[in-house]
């Protein structure tokens, strides 16, 4: 019995010693807990929360969805030359070419202008809302276009309505790709831009055939069903990865505090002021120089086919040469081409020019977003940077087509248009060169 009591006393003493050790080692004060949480918070911030996978099934599925969205945005916008030629010969024959061109200009302007809203909203976590709303609005406005009869109705339904819908789709569809790619971001932006070229090749030919076979009304309605199918595919396939950006502004002029970004945006605006004269007036130019209407529609498809090469090949090598370098090179070649456009006077010359110009000008659409995104500090700022860039350049796009239309001579001469367009592109290249100088000095590398 005595031995059992002694063992009990020893066990109790051992437990007391162990308890005291646990208290001395494990017990922490509130101040200690606060310090530990602060240290843990700092450690978590040492880890980049915006690390991207640069691949995987989910990422490439998102690229496919963005590609389909791109078809409905600039792919449809690139077909306006078909609408313009059809309107001038039919419903809007009483209107001047300058007035008709305002429909396409408003559409292109709003694609970019609405980007200042849709880009930050995408960063804030409303990607699906934007794609769904944009798709439904696009479908509705094309249906309204099909039953329009007056100039103001086309201006509202196709110019304003379709432009708003495309603006809700375009910037988010591009910005979401930055959630999945960093090293190959320029490449996937090129694939996204290629959707516009594919749409620009197929849709003009399809529309021309539809207008001949089923008429304008059902031709536009069939286009509306194609659009809703493409947007629906993008809605399902595209996903976001990053948490919503809190406290962001829709219009945040603070991005212009960096001079390299400001110079790049100015350059993009002046380039856009003249770059798309052959796209806007290429069909009319061809028919004025004796080309049949059917072949003139194919010339627009040839230009867009050339832009497919221009939008994908530079982006495939941009990781080696840099997106800004390739952008400057492509815009310089585009300016040279614009200066000699008026020399293409027969069918062969026009078709060769359209193909070559599509190649050199196509890089503008794909390399510009990649160059802009490379200036963002974090990937979840991509939508804001793209949105502000598109917002700023949209005003150049708004007046580009009407100015070009007004410069076409009464005798059909395009010399003044060529000189104006080429010179504005050269001015834009100068701003881009200044931007490149600042970026190169900061990054200490030529690959920018």
Automatic annotation (TrEMBL):
The keyword Transcription does not apply. GO terms for cellular component: membrane. Its main location: membrane. Pfam families: MFS_1. SUPFAM superfamilies: MFS general substrate transporter. It is a multi-pass membrane protein. The keyword Membrane applies. Keywords: Membrane, Transmembrane, Transmembrane helix. The chain crosses the membrane at residues 59-80, 100-122, 129-148, 154-175, 187-206, 218-240, 261-283, 295-313, 320-342, 348-371, 383-400, 412-434. GO terms for molecular function: transmembrane transporter activity. Belongs to the major facilitator superfamily. Monocarboxylate porter (TC 2.A.1.13) family. This is Major facilitator superfamily domain-containing protein.
């Amino acid at each position: 019995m005595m031995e059992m009591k002694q063992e009990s006393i020893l066990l109790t003493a051992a437990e007391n010693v162990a308890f005291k050790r646990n208290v001395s080692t494990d017990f922490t004060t509130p101040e200690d807990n606060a310090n530990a949480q602060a240290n843990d918070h700092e450690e978590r911030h040492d880890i980049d929360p915006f690390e991207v996978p640069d691949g995987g099934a989910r990422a490439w599925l998102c690229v496919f969805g963005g590609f389909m969205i791109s078809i409905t945005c600039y792919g449809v916008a690139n077909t306006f030359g078909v609408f313009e030629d059809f309107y001038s010969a039919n419903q809007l024959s009483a209107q001047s070419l300058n007035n008709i061109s305002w429909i396409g200009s408003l559409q292109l302007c709003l694609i970019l202008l609405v980007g200042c809203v849709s880009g930050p909203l995408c960063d804030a976590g409303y990607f699906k809302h934007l794609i769904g709303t944009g798709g439904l609005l696009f479908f509705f406005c094309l249906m309204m276009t099909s039953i329009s009869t007056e100039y103001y109705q086309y201006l509202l339904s196709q110019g304003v309505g379709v432009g708003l819908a495309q603006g809700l789709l375009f910037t988010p569809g591009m910005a979401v790709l930055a959630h999945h790619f960093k090293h190959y971001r320029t490449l996937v932006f090129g694939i996204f831009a290629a959707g516009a070229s594919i749409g620009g090749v197929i849709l003009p030919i399809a529309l021309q055939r539809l207008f001949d076979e089923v008429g304008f009304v059902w031709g536009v309605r069939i286009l509306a069903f194609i659009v809703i199918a493409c947007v629906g595919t993008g809605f399902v396939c595209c996903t976001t990865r990053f948490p919503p950006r809190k406290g962001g502004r829709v219009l945040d002029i603070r991005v212009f505090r960096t001079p390299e970004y400001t110079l790049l945006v100015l350059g993009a605006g002046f380039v856009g002021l003249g770059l798309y004269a052959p796209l806007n007036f290429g069909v009319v130019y061809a028919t004025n120089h004796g080309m049949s209407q059917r072949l003139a529609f194919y010339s627009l498809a040839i230009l867009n086919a050339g832009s497919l090469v221009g939008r994908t090949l530079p982006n495939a090598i941009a990781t080696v040469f840099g997106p800004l370098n390739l952008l400057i090179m492509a815009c310089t070649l585009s300016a040279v081409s614009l200066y000699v456009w008026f020399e293409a006077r027969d069918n062969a010359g026009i078709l060769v020019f359209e193909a070559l110009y599509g190649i050199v000008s196509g890089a503008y659409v794909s390399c510009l977003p990649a160059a802009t995104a490379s200036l963002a500090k974090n990937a979840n700022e991509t939508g804001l940077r793209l949105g502000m860039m598109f917002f700023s350049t949209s005003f150049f796009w708004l007046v580009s087509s009407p100015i070009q239309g007004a410069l076409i001579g009464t005798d059909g001469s395009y010399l003044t248009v060529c000189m104006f367009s080429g010179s504005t592109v050269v001015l834009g290249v100068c701003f881009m060169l200044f931007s490149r100088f600042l970026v190169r000095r900061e990054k200490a590398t030529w690959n920018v």
